[in-house]
Design a protein that fits this description.
- By secondary structure, the protein is mainly α.
- The protein has 3 helices and no strands.
Length: about 90
């Protein structure tokens, strides 16, 4: 369990780094300079696929187990599960 939580936390840190890098390249593009298009494509591809295929299913499983053990956490967890569904829709759009 500890390994899973550490892995999920690492995923969040990595995603934050990638989003900052993408934002930096978008600022470069907005300033009429050439960003690293290949890097931008790779980041977008990662954001498009990794969370929905690997990260969120593991996170959702962890949340389901927590709710099975203690139903009082359901109120705090259900919005996160809904966010995951919305994020998937937004990402694909």
């Amino acid at each position: 369990m500890k390994h899973l939580i550490e892995s999920l936390h690492e995923d969040h840190r990595n995603l934050s780094k990638l989003l900052r890098l993408l934002e930096t390249n978008l600022l470069i593009l907005q300033s009429d300079n050439d960003p690293d298009y290949f890097l931008m494509f790779d980041i977008i591809e990662y954001i498009y696929s990794y969370p929905d295929v690997f990260h969120h299913p593991r996170e959702d499983l962890l949340y389901q187990k927590a709710m099975e053990r203690d139903s009082s956490v359901r109120e705090g967890i259900e919005p996160v599960l809904q966010q995951h569904a919305e994020l998937k829709k937004c990402t694909h759009r």
